[in-house]
């Protein structure tokens, strides 16, 4: 068996508002499953999944944090040492992008300065059919219309969100946790952008030159969440299948 | 063990998820009920929570936001009685009993169309209140409303309606809350002991309580020698931990234990280590998640090495005992409460019992218990209750309480014989029925 070092990346998938689909996104990525009407996350959930890159396998440690306001004060705990954050909004709800932007500001101010941030627009499946036609003229005015389940329309144009992400140098992907579209891409793109050499040299259990696997801590934060403090750096030295 | 596998979803997850998903339909439908609708009005029991300013906070059925007129009316009623410095406690409309429970800035209201006793409804409202406190702490609750009496508490409770729904539903189908003791899982004494030892073996600094819980039934609980948590706090915790959201992954969340300290949070780790078996850890340190996750790994390693995890899973899969396993026939359901241990076990219902009869029997147990425990100077020791459809016995001695429902065709003599047989059986099985030596440090 190959003995390989795991290196922790604390990727903080930090998602904007409640009910934008943070947990569904993570569940799709980790278990490849989807549940309708998934119950909201309480506190934070910790999950792990591997991503395969060209020449390596990274293990991502993912914090999926609750979107509810009462957990907001706990959020720094989760993103404090994160190497990456995935901030999720709901493309059918204009207010959720504002919330995502606020999160991004907070991350840029308070998190690790080298943090990789991905902006993710979820619920692509809800607008799949009438998308092309409407995309041009979405405005942010009908903020409160997105409440009920049926007949949702896109409220955030791809171009708008992409322009914002480009301006700030964020990764940008639109996804559907329901169909799975774009989900693996989010985490693969995040993993690619992580500075592996930096993480390895930071002495987190990895031996340079053997960098064929690593742990990435991903925090999926909602409007709050738990933080991985120093304790989050877990060295796995046992054998793995890769 | 490979990390990814350690955290991977157990195999059974797929099927569980599937069956659970089927329940989403009716639940979602319940939340859409309009309060003018026949469905809403025909519900036997309603539980509502509002703020002292009349803002809707929670309703079991329908959407609380659409009930704002009703909530305002309730607020007006309560307020007008408050002005007379004689707070309203209950109302009887003939068809419905309405019970109010006022606690600081929260008004709670239960409406029952089946003549539930007032004390019973009030104690159930107190549990709903405690569950809200367990989510927010009383300190936070009080402070928020002091600062802004018109605050919309749903902003803070967001995402936990499901937990309160679950509690309200359980009150109607599970006697544990009324008994005020812990429900235990029947399993071999030695297996329980070894699981307890394993919990003790790896205890990291900062871990206060560790428990293994199968479907809200206690397997074992590790605790400090001089402290123990109140059963009511554990009921609320187990109710929360049984929420479907916790089935996947490792979870870490602040929880307030109202009887322990209603002003602050402890931090709770929840992970399902086998199908419907949760490891629940309580720590005072909010940064100790990784110590907890390491502990879980060690515990699971030791349990798997000795095949204990498999056997624990098997014991949990059986869930409650079947009435026939008690060596009697004609028994529909039974609860036995051990007074000194403050633990109880309940069998499941005989297959022939339908949902309505099940609720009726539990409800009868609750009333009979009320008679026995609040019966004044000479409380009744034994009550035999018979109606056209049900036959129920409640019995308390200095050491136990027993509640049994039997086939209505049985006569009193037969019933007494049956109960005596069960008591004999309990004596021989006691070691396996209850947590006799809970590990302490």
From TrEMBL, chain A:
Record's keyword annotation contains Nucleotide-binding: yes
Pfam short name (any one): Ras
Region (Disordered), start-end ranges: 131-152
GO MF term set: GTP binding; GTPase activity
Signal sequence, start to end: none
Residue ranges with Acidic residues bias: 131-148
Protein's recorded name: Vacuolar protein sorting-associated protein 21
Species for this entry: Coemansia guatemalensis
Lineage: Eukaryota, Fungi, Fungi incertae sedis, Zoopagomycota, Kickxellomycotina
UniProtKB/TrEMBL annotation, chain B:
Chain's role: Required for multiple vacuole delivery pathways including the cytoplasm to vacuole transport (Cvt), autophagy, pexophagy and endocytosis.
Taxonomic superkingdom: Eukaryota
Keywords: Autophagy, Endosome, Membrane, Protein transport, Transport, Vacuole
One GO term of the biological process aspect: protein targeting to vacuole
Residue stretches making up the FUZ/MON1/HPS1 third Longin domain: 331-430
Family named by the database record: Belongs to the MON1/SAND family.
Recorded topology in the membrane: Peripheral membrane protein
Protein name: Vacuolar fusion protein MON1
The FUZ/MON1/HPS1 second Longin domain, residue ranges: 205-299
Domain FUZ/MON1/HPS1 first Longin: 45-167
One CC-aspect GO term: Mon1-Ccz1 complex
Annotated transmembrane regions: none
Compartment(s) where it occurs, according to its Swiss-Prot or TrEMBL record: Endosome, Multivesicular body membrane; Prevacuolar compartment membrane; Vacuole membrane
Region (Disordered): 1-23
Organism: Coemansia guatemalensis
InterPro entries according to UniProt: FUZ/MON1/HPS1_longin_1 (IPR043972), FUZ/MON1/HPS1_longin_2 (IPR043971), FUZ/MON1/HPS1_longin_3 (IPR043970), Mon1 (IPR004353)
């Amino acid at each position: 068996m190959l003995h390989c070092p795991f290196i922790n990346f604390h990727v903080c998938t930090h998602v904007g508002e409640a009910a934008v689909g943070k947990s569904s996104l993570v569940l799709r990525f980790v278990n490849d499953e989807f549940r309708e009407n998934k119950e909201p996350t309480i506190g934070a959930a910790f999950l792990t999944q591997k991503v395969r890159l060209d020449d390596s396998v990274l293990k991502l440690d993912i914090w999926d944090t609750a979107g509810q306001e009462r957990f907001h004060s706990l959020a720094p705990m989760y993103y404090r040492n994160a190497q990456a954050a995935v901030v999720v909004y709901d493309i059918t709800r204009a207010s959720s992008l504002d919330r995502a932007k606020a999160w991004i500001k907070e991350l840029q101010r308070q998190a690790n300065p080298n943090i990789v941030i991905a902006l993710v627009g979820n619920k692509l499946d809800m607008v799949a059919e009438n998308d092309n036609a409407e995309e041009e003229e979405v405005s942010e005015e009908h903020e409160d219309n997105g409440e009920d389940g049926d007949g949702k329309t896109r409220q955030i144009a791809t171009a708008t969100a992409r322009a914002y992400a480009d301006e700030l140098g964020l990764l940008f992907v639109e996804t559907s946790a329901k169909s799975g579209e774009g989900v693996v891409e989010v985490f693969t793109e995040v993993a690619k952008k992580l500075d592996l050499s930096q993480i390895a040299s930071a002495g987190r259990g990895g031996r340079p030159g053997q960098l064929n696997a690593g742990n990435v801590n991903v925090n999926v934060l909602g409007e709050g969440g738990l933080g991985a403090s120093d304790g989050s750096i877990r060295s796995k030295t046992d054998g793995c299948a890769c | 063990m490979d990390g990814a596998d350690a955290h991977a979803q157990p195999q059974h997850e797929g099927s569980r998820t599937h069956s659970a998903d089927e329940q989403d339909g009716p639940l979602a439908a319940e939340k859409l009920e309009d309060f003018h609708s026949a469905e809403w009005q025909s519900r036997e029991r309603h539980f509502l929570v509002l703020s002292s300013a009349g803002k809707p906070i929670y309703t079991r059925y329908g959407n609380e936001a659409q009930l704002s007129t009703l909530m305002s009316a309730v607020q007006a009623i309560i307020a007008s009685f408050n002005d007379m410095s004689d707070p309203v406690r209950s109302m009887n409309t003939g068809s419905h009993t309405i019970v109010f429970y006022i606690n600081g800035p929260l008004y709670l209201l239960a409406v029952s169309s089946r003549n539930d006793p007032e004390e019973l409804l009030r104690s159930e409202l107190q549990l709903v209140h405690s569950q809200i406190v367990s989510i927010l702490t009383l300190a936070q609750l009080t402070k928020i409303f002091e600062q802004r009496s018109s605050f919309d508490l749903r902003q803070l409770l967001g995402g936990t309606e499901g937990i309160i729904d679950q509690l309200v539903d359980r009150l109607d189908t599970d006697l544990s809350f009324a008994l005020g003791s812990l429900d235990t899982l029947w399993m071999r004494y030695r297996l329980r002991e070894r699981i307890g030892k394993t919990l003790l073996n790896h205890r990291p600094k900062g871990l206060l309580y560790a428990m293994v819980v199968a479907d809200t039934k206690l397997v074992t609980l590790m605790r400090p020698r001089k402290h123990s948590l109140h059963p009511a706090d554990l009921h609320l915790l187990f109710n929360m931990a049984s929420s479907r959201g916790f089935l996947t992954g490792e979870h870490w969340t602040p929880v307030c234990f109202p009887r322990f300290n209603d002003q602050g949070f402890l931090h709770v780790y929840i992970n399902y280590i086998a199908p419907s078996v949760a490891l629940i850890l309580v720590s005072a340190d909010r940064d100790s998640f990784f110590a907890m996750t390491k502990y879980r790994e060690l515990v699971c390693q030791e349990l798997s090495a000795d095949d204990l995890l498999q056997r624990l899973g098997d014991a949990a899969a059986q869930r409650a005992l079947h009435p026939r396993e008690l060596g009697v026939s004609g028994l529909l359901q039974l609860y036995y409460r051990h007074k000194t241990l403050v633990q109880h076990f309940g069998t499941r219902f005989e297959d022939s019992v339908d949902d309505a009869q099940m609720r009726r029997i539990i409800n009868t147990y609750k009333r009979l218990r009320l008679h026995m425990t609040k019966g004044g100077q000479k409380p009744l020791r034994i009550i035999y209750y018979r109606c056209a459809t049900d036959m129920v016995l409640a019995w308390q001695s200095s050491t136990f309480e027993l509640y049994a429902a039997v086939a209505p065709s049985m006569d009193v003599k037969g019933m007494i014989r049956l109960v005596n047989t069960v008591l004999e059986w309990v004596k021989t099985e006691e070691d396996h029925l209850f947590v006799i030596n809970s590990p302490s440090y």
